[in-house]
Design brief:
The chain is α+β, with helices and mostly antiparallel strands. It has one domain. The protein is about 40% helix and about 10% strand. It is built from ten helices and seven strands. The strands form three sheets. A three-stranded antiparallel beta sheet has the order 1-3-2, with helices on both faces. It has a two-stranded antiparallel sheet with strand order 4-5. A two-stranded antiparallel ribbon has the order 6-7. The chain starts with a helix and ends in a 30-residue tail after the last strand.
């Protein structure tokens, strides 16, 4: 299904531990509109289009924090970027994708890759890296290894929740732009908690009935941290989740897109 493939390609961005994800797919305008409606708080834009669309799914508040970094601004200035608002930076990136002689490797910054790794990839032409995973690592290999694991665990958890009946729009962790942590710190938080932020788990019984009708319903027991099953006679009639087919994604490059 279309939504399931999106989760597989962009789970860390949906969970708020990665500022953006990049993937190349073939889909119609109606399907693109449908996806955008399922992604509250996120933006899905077309960066380039040939036979397939190169899509960029991102969190505007996290991308804005990246573009405010003075070291990143100095690096982007050397590549012709003159404004560091989200809209202006994406406009220049689109132009670079269309007209640059080679691939604009600074796109890794828009995906949350560390500046040292983006610069190392360019300097070494993609060779002699310390570690190769979601991107090629040239500094802080151990930290990058933990981040790769956090992304993997996040993807596994979101796919499982979706399989359990939770719709795509409820898998998205909503963050507070005013208090958002720097994107580099998000995977570290994920590793320390092993799950979403607490606010993403506040599901009511009514929500649980609609999103996972076949899962055991549970209610809080006063004075206890544990929950107890709701008696069968008090459960509402069950319904069947929507399983209508949708167009699949093709040729993903997602988190393994260079650099």
């Amino acid at each position: 299904m279309l939504e399931q493939e999106l989760i597989s390609l962009a789970a860390p961005t949906l969970a708020g531990i990665k500022p953006g994800s990049l993937f190349s797919i073939q889909l119609s305008s109606d399907e693109l509109t449908h996806l955008r409606h399922q992604l509250p708080g996120l933006r899905l834009v077309v960066l380039a289009q040939r036979q397939k669309k190169l899509l960029y799914l991102f969190r505007p508040e996290q991308l804005s924090l990246i573009l405010m970094d003075p070291a990143i601004q100095r690096f982007l200035l050397s590549l012709g970027y003159t404004s560091f608002t989200v809209g202006a930076a994406l406009h220049h990136l689109r132009n670079r994708l269309m007209h640059a002689s080679g691939f604009p490797h600074e796109i890794g910054l828009f995906l949350g890759y560390p500046l040292a790794d983006v610069q190392g990839f360019i300097q070494h032409h993609g060779q002699n890296c310390l570690l190769s995973g979601c991107w090629k690592v040239y500094a802080n290999a151990e930290e990058a290894r933990h981040t790769f694991e956090a992304y993997r665990a996040c993807r596994q958890q979101l796919l499982q929740r979706y399989a359990d009946g939770v719709p795509l729009c409820q898998l998205i962790v909503q963050t507070n732009p005013a208090g958002a942590a720097h994107p580099a710190d998000a995977p570290r938080y994920w590793r320390s908690t092993g799950s979403f932020h607490e606010s993403s788990h506040r599901e009511t019984l009514d929500t649980r009935r609609r999103t996972a009708p076949h899962a055991p319903l549970r209610r809080r027991v006063p004075g206890s941290a544990r929950s107890a099953p709701i008696p069968a006679h008090s459960r509402p009639p069950q319904c069947t989740p929507d399983t209508s087919p949708a167009r699949a994604f093709y040729s993903p490059c997602s988190t393994r897109h260079r650099p």
